[in-house]
Amino acid sequence: MKEKLGGIMLHQLEGSQAIAKVVAMCRPNLICAYPITPQTHIVEELGEIVRSGELQNCEYLNVESEMAALSATIGAQAAGIRSYTATSSQGLLHMAEAIYNASGLELPIVMTIGNRAIGSPLNIWNDHSDAMAVRDAGWIMLFAESNQEAVNLHIQAFRIAEMVKCPVMVCVDGFILTHAYERINIPDQKEVDEFLPAYEPHITMDTANPLSIGTMVPPEYFMEVRYIAHLRQQKSISIIEHVADKFADKFGGNSGGLFHKYNIQDAETIVVTMGSVAGTIRDVVDDINCESGNKFGVLTLISYRPFPQKEIREALKNAKKIVVVEKALAVGIGGILVQEIKLSLAGINVNITSVVAGLGGKPITRSMLYDCLLGSSHEETKFLGLNDDLVKKKCLFACDASVI
Amino acid sequence: MSYPTIGGPAAEKKNTNVAHDVCVQSQIDRRNTITSGHRACQGCGEALAARCVLDAAYSATNGNIVVVNATGCLEVFSCVYPENAWNIPWLHSLFANAPSVASGVAAAMHVSGKSTRVIAQGGDGATTDIGMGALSGMFDRNDDVLYVCYDNQAYMNTGVQRSSSTPPMARTATTFPVGSYLGNDAKSGKNLPEIAIAHNIPYVATASVAHVTDLEQKVMAAIHIRGARYIHVHVPCPLGWGIKTSETIKIARLAIDCGLFPLFEVVNGAMTTSFTIENLVPVEEYLKPQRRFAHLFGKNAVPDAIAHIQKLADENIKRYKLLGENAHE
Fold first, then answer.
1. Is the pLDDT assigned to residue B20 strictly greater than 80?
2. How far is Cα B141 from Cα B99, in angstroms, rounded to an integer?
3. Is B130 within 8 Å of chain A by CB?
4. CATH of span A8-251
5. ipTM metric
6. What number is the average pLDDT over the span A368-374?
7. CATH architecture assigned to A259-393
């Protein structure tokens, strides 16, 4: 279904379908497919696109595991072609070793993550535990807020990856985005081609110029290699901004970059978040500002890695209160994003509260957020929507130091 | 990917113990794909076999090969930055994923319209243990890769621990004979060439560093075939096996001559025996010079254990017709 709106052709598409369509427009030469919910529809759709001949000159590889999916992508990219795969949750952890390998080899692979909880207990629904588990692996990690942004970020991701020589993960909330049907603006192939030039590999397996890729590096050089990777990611902050600006010039709209700012100028309280919950939070903040006369704003982080510390500090420095709402938990300490926000605001006298929400697909409702944002909780970490009765029942079995 | 299969010439040169073609290693213009100066131990069977394999592949393709290497001895001794022994395009990713990486490289060659042949290689740990799922996937898809396993029958790089290719009763650091425990379990082990055959891939062969010409011919046959191919090369490790560094080839030859390591070739499902044994020797002759089997000999000798290993050799002799077509009739 298509609809023309203000000169833009809108398509009624499932998020996964839209992502697949736009990935195909980026003309990868290898797509590795391995099923895992909620990512599966993306590679299914790509299979059809390749087999129908819509995407030419592309190998579609059905592999036997996520480890194989990313490994084949590594091989193909090292041999000089643009490569893509997608995964979620357990699949991301299954490829963990290869995730570090891809970034260490400086291969500009693009991978979609349909974000999902990590078991046990087994859970197929959305949170950010999977991406957070590999946050230090040296990939650029971009979080989409909507399916339109997911579409736009994928085009930007290939450009950023190839400019920075670093793989990019595009994180898309499982089910909430991957399975949602929306009206989405899919750009023209010609425009994508203009924005994303043909891949020119910086390393390749060329018999005329033999390279050894992936050699062992002893202590004399290893730390330097990691430092260079860190420097490169820091430099990529300006590239991510630049690519988003160029994208906006060409395709319009406002997607990508480091973060989205909503009402944060003069805001007394700024809610910091990532992913699809940002829209709900903005609605709640509108209600609060309208009804109570408070001044709330929202900062939605897109570029989680590199983490734009200076830019975040600049954006948040005048607020009196920061509330970090995140869909991940570091068991034994609390929120993850909140720690990084605290670090970014070190030395600034600001009240920072941590809200862990939506783990394993627990709904995040407007009323929950409304109460949470206006409430005066003294808890260090607030767990949104927790079933206290269930927790109390289970706590009977918790360990008791007095019995030791 | 699916490719037409083409029979290789090595299949036609069956049952001969005589070198019939000029050996690549005897040529002055051989490539030295792995050049000298690397850090392999003295007498390393794997280093020698890998050079023979890759020089032969290089020669057969006019240098049109690229190599994917699993983690292991071969990777570690050849490329500690800033030194490097490789004279060909070479990629190392991880321990468990060399077959998958090679599938990706082969896909890249195919999609780029290049005729470059892709070789993946690793030790028995990478091949029969940690990377076996990946290898099976590569076989299943019939990806256009020649996979070569250099089998020295244990994890040598980490200090001689047991792999699923470690032979029965062998001593390793994790199968150390203590009291009534006689080393590696008698019933353990994985026959990877047979597992490869069960995938119905177009080419499977076993080879040995003791028979370089045969090894080279198998590589030169396999390299041109389209689809997934597998060569399993027996390579003694002086350090891990407890043999003299000067006896690598001698020990490898004894493994063939006692029947424990059969040499064969399977082209499109049809098996031919590459070597018939001329001077059959009892397994003791192969086992006794190796310290990893020393606990089976001497004053605490375990005749039952030797008899068990002899039985395995006898079964091979029958199954692979190692004494010739009519030996059992």
1. no
2. 11
3. no
4. 3.40.50.970
5. 0.95
6. 95
7. 3-Layer(aba) Sandwich (3.40)
